[in-house]
Structures are given as C-alpha cells and as structure tokens.
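Hi there,

I know you've been waiting on this one. I reran it after we fixed the sequence typo, so this is the corrected version. Both the input and the resulting structure follow.
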Amino acid sequence: WEQTVAALPFAIKRILAFAFKIIPISPRKCVYFSIHLGNSFN
C-alpha cells in the first residue's frame, strides 16, 4: 500500500503529460490562464 501511495504522484504526472499531448494548445492555454487567474484572485 505504501508503494502504491508513493507511486501516485508519478502516475498522475504521467497521465497529465499524456493528456497535454492529446489536448490542442488552445484549450491548454485556456486552462492555464484560468488556473493563473484563480490563483491571483485567491
């Protein structure tokens, strides 16, 4: 179980990297800016 928990961040990074390769640049920019705007308002 501890090994599974330790592997989770790595698996999430792999999934995100894979998703970013699939998603076109335009939606990526929208998500990126929305995250930045959300962080700046908090």
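Quick highlight: The chain has one domain: 2-41.

Best,
R. S.
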